[in-house]
């Protein structure tokens, strides 16, 4: 029988486009200190460290070696995970697996990306499968743009619906002191006035390139109960891979391909007795780099029927005060320090379950939450969190 | 309001080439060779599920079996499934600068039944639409670059 694993502390840096005031290790250290303070622990209590980062984006060889001291890795076991956008989610899963196995009683999981060091879109375009489709890719932007164009046509969603998703995100971000873009947007019209980056994606339809870090501390049940009276349990998690370049695109415009999100959600819900996700789960933090993507993710994760994602936003169901809040933190479209992003999803869900989310605490009492991650086009990680086991 | 003192930041620009030598391997190598020598797109088929594997590869991920050498030649015609075009200049590492004036980027379903991400010759947004029929326009010079032996996909009449 595996050990039960709980989150006993979370911490993050503030997120900005540029952090020239700190080096990468210094930025990571900020998040580590914040998580330790939240758990009221010191580095002596941590047995292992797992980090998530995409080193090609910053161009630093083995960053986990360079920041061993600042991450608390010095003379301790652990490693770095790099699975694209889902790196931080994979790191949480690895930390959780090691604690569940009984090998370590505690694990510190850190996700980080300092995107002011380089150009992520350039790195994706340059380094993705150099002998296949070189020069064809337009980073994540191009794929999300094409996906949005198809979704618009197939589902009946309009640019107004996409703008409503950004409005919702911005309302959340403005209530979250750590969020990157806090724009104070007031109307759909304001968003529809922003220029196109890549048709049909407007500047305000896409996430920023953020620099920031986030850390969570995991503990086995016995330790967790000693450390905190508000442990948040990792009830289950799942990872599903799908080769990104089979379809050559995010999602599948013809319906011939299987979505990794669909496979992950089906399996995770089934083995946890979740028959009606919007009823059995209280809220979600998803990996949605664009507002269009958020509406699609509602469908991929079975929060609604196919082609009806836009109806959830239209009816206000996913608002902070709504029946099923999604991304109350402002989400990825407001803050995207890639390696940190999925760790933030998990940390935000934990704060909501603890009731410690502050200004952006959702109205619904959160006993169960799901955090998701998206890597490459189709590398899905889902983490199911609960207040009670 | 007290103005924060400005900090001194030391910046070290490093421009470097990428001296890598990536191998195409046996399977993708055959596609490279056929494209270079015969302006043809080829791929292999799974012996079990009979699906086309794309790009060509030694195993079928679904069936977990060795794919073998059942090679199929595909038409270089296809249908545009989705497309986008760049409006705001984006950094392009292959050019070394921000580029806005570029060909639209499309996901094309080849008539053989596999997807391809490539460029479209048609630059007028008014004339772009999902469902449009296109065909590869092959380069005459400097071939041996795999899919880059195709300049772009040009619009063809129905």
Characterization of the model:
The complex is a heterodimer of chains A (389) and B (158). Chain A has helices spanning 24-39, 55-58, 63-66, 68-71, 87-101, 120-127, 139-155, 159-174, 188-192, 221-227, 244-247, 260-271, 277-280, 291-300, 309-314, 331-334, 341-354; strands at 5-12, 48-52, 78-81, 106-114, 196-198, 201-202, 211-220, 232-240, 283-285, 368-375, 379-386. By secondary structure, chain A is α/β, with parallel strands linked by helices. Chain A has a domain at 5-119 and 209-227: Peroxisomal Thiolase, Chain A, domain 1 (3-Layer(aba) Sandwich). In chain A, strands 3-2-4-7-1-8-11-10-9 form a nine-stranded mixed beta sheet. Chain A has a two-stranded antiparallel sheet with strand order 5-6. In chain A, helix 5 crosses helix 17 (341-354) and helix 8 (159-174) packs across helix 14 (291-300). The longest helix of chain A has 17 residues, at 139-155. The mean pLDDT of chain A is 92. Chain B has one helix spanning 25-38; strands at residues 41-44, 59-60, 65-66, 71-74, 77-84, 90-92, 97-99, 105-110, 115-119, 133-138, 150-155. Chain B folds into two domains: 23-74, no CATH class; 75-158, OB fold (Dihydrolipoamide Acetyltransferase, E2P). Chain B starts with 24 loop residues before the first helix and ends with a strand. Chain B is mainly beta and 158 residues long. In chain B, the strands form four sheets. A five-stranded antiparallel beta sheet of chain B has the order 9-8-5-10-11, with no helix packed on it. A two-stranded antiparallel sheet of chain B has the order 1-4. The chains are: A alpha/beta (389), B mainly beta (158). The A-B interface holds A 20-21, 119, 121-123, 125-126, 130-139, 141-142, 145-147, 149-150, 153, 195-201, 203, 243, 245-249, 253-254 and B 7, 9, 18, 20, 22-24, 28, 32, 54-55, 61, 81-88, 90-94, 105-107, 109, 115-119, 125, 130, 145-148.
